Amino acid sequence: xxxxxxxxxxxxxxxxxxxxxxxxxxxxxxxxxxxxxxxxxxxxxxxxxxxxxxxxxxxxxxxxxxxxxxxxxxxxxxxxxxxxxxxxxxxxxxxxxxxxxxxxxxxxxxxxxxxxxxxxxxxxxxxxxxxxxxxxxxxxxxxxxxxxxxxxxxxxxxxxxxxxxxxxxxxxxxxxxxxxxxxxxxxxxxxxxxxxxxxxxxxxxxxxxxxxxxxxxxxxxxxxxxxxxxxxxxxxxxxxxxxxxxxxxxxxxxxxxxxxxxxxxxxxxxxxxxxxxxxxxxxxxxxxxxxxxxxxxxxxxxxxxxxxxxxxxxxxxxxxxxxxxxxxxxxxxxxxxxxxxxxxxxxxxxxxxxxxxxxxxxxxxxxxxxxxxxxxxxxxxxxxxxxxxxxxxxxxxxxxxxxxxxxxxxxxxxxxxxxxxxxxxxxxxxxxxxxxxxxxxxxxxxxxxxxxxxxxxxxxxxxxx
Length: 465
Fold this sequence. Notes:
Layout: H1 2-36, E1 42-50, E2 54-65, E3 68-80, H2 82-94, E4 98-99, E5 104-111, H3 115-126, E6 131-135, E7 140-144, E8 154-158, E9 161-162, E10 166-170, E11 178-189, E12 192-203, E13 209-212, E14 217-220, E15 231-235, E16 239-240, E17 246-248, E18 257-266, E19 272-281, E20 295-298, E21 301-304, E22 307-308, H4 326-341, E23 348-350, H5 355-369, H6 371-377, E24 391-394, H7 405-413, E25 419-421, H8 428-431, E26 439-442, H9 445-454, H10 458-462
Parallel strand pairs: 7-12, 14-19
Antiparallel strand pairs: 1-2, 2-3, 3-5, 4-5, 6-8, 8-9, 10-11, 11-12, 13-15, 15-16, 17-18, 18-19, 20-21, 21-22, 23-24, 24-26, 25-26
């Protein structure tokens, strides 16, 4: 019985010893933890990073826990546009940062050394002179839809040495408009990756094309019905957008005058286009002259209803030399100046021509193309309107002039200055000359407006065709 008791006492003593050792270790651990938590073992560091098109402030805390250093980084994004912001946040998440508030991200990692050496290495790596990383070219580019882009790349150095260890990522798609990002990543050390971003804006600045079906210039009899001949619209980005075309039509067929139908369309990228169709409503019963024209001959000059008239059948004397008409020339200058304000060039190509000059000109054309053909685009001496002093060739006498904005403007507005296009389109059988959109004849605003409204040639209007 006594032996048993001694054995038990010995076991109790061993247990007490072990318990005492554990208590001592715990107290030592707590004291040591308290020791390492003193401010002496904790320090802060902050720095700003300017990435060119984004700015970030980082506050770093180095905290010793036993023989490890815990690094806490709190990163605040200062200035950044949304396109780069989204790309940057994605990269931060990849690096282990978590959202810690609006525009604030946090990361904690552990190193197996004291914070004093960790902080020194951290400051060295993040010093502006340690790594050089910058974009070649510009921070952003605007590239036309479906155009190629050649990346200017970056300049990258670590500790003064060139390095090509740059990872490049991009979501660029030049077949779709929008903003895209090319990101460049330079791994400076195991915990720090430097980043640059370039924004590529794929843009579409090409206007849609509206094509009118039928004639651009239409003449209608008084009171008749206007029937739209149709149109189509094609865009380089959207394709067929005919359904998006808006038509503005204010035609009143019971009110003579010139009307403009406007066709407009806007594509998905905001590019706008407009085209016009001109509709002339003729004077009531203007197709047939109610009275016979008054034709007078004075000194070999023909006057029809008081208007000096010349064409293939009516000529001017060889000695008729009035020079340019001052009133007509003043009206021409006003028309040129108003057109110039709109960015249109109506420079004077040819004005008054004497009988002699016209003779030399026609002979040159006849030698070149033969007299019959020359007579379709050039008048014989004595039959040229230029000899009246009331006619001018403006803009250009090239065949392509017909399709210019200048030619369209002349057609629509010349009557406002007292002029008519003397040889209209599709009227060769009446005038004897091919369409000359550049040849204008001064009649005065009142008569010119009436001729324009009638939709007739001067021969038809005067009733001598």
